[in-house]
Amino acid sequence: MQGPVAGAGMTGVAGCVALVTGCGSAGGIGFATAQALAAAGARVAITAGGGRIFDRQAALGEGHRGFVADLCDAEQVRGMVAAVRTRFGGLDIVVTTAEAPATEAEALRIEDMADADWQAETGQTLTAAFNVTRAVLPGMQVRGFGRIVHVAPVTGALAGSAGLGAARAALTGLTRRIAQENAALGITCNAVLPGWIVEPPLPEDGPGRPGLPQDVAAACLFLAGRAAGFINGATLVVDGGHGLGGDALRGGGLHGEG
């Protein structure tokens, strides 16, 4: 059984219904991804934990919809996904970008972290993605089509708190397991691993330029499209070559706007 994108062109997402999490910030990766999907012809549902999501809905324009949900609450997630399906008649694409906000725990050693610090940072990053994926999979399995993309910054294991680093690394493992379990059902699951990403304006100093949310959104859009149907269980690093070090920081389109 083919998904609704079968008649929407071999490379695009036009006509698909997409859900993007972590869209509360106007300048973040989540909303940049929602904008990219909408510009490519998808009908987009966006979600965040507070009412500012309706400002993002207004910015996206007609045909798109914002939903409020605590993604760490499985019941709220199930209700939100059901509401998306009722509103749009289906769900083809899911991109999870929600992540725990910076906390004082980032300055703590592992032995000094409180249980609440660990639970907060692993919950919003890892548990949220698990809850959303678990809620959307049955419908995708019935339809025989789905695209799931998880955003997990590549710097996670080496920077920030132990909780956030562990959650980001675990999310790539979860991605591979989801891909393995659902490959025969027409569903792909991949991860995008951003490096140094900042919201505009760009800093004027430093080696090369950091990435923009739009750089990550472009990778998510590709993996959400029909052209990426043979890519499954993969991790796509979007860091402009910063992870290579040395001369990679002075070339490869890192200067200027790309």
What does this structure look like?
It is globular and about 45 Å long. Helix 1 crosses helix 6. The N terminus and C terminus are likely disordered. Strand 5, helix 5 and strand 6 form a beta-alpha-beta unit. It is 37% helix and 14% strand. It has a 7-stranded parallel β-sheet, with helices on both faces. It has 258 residues and is α/β, with parallel strands linked by helices.
Structure at a glance:
The chain has helices at about 30-40, 55-60, 75-90, 115-145, 160-180, 215-225, and strands at about 15-20, 45-50, 65-70, 95, 145-150, 185-195, 235-240. It is α/β, with parallel strands linked by helices. The protein has a 7-stranded parallel beta sheet with strand order 3-2-1-4-5-6-7, with helices on both faces.
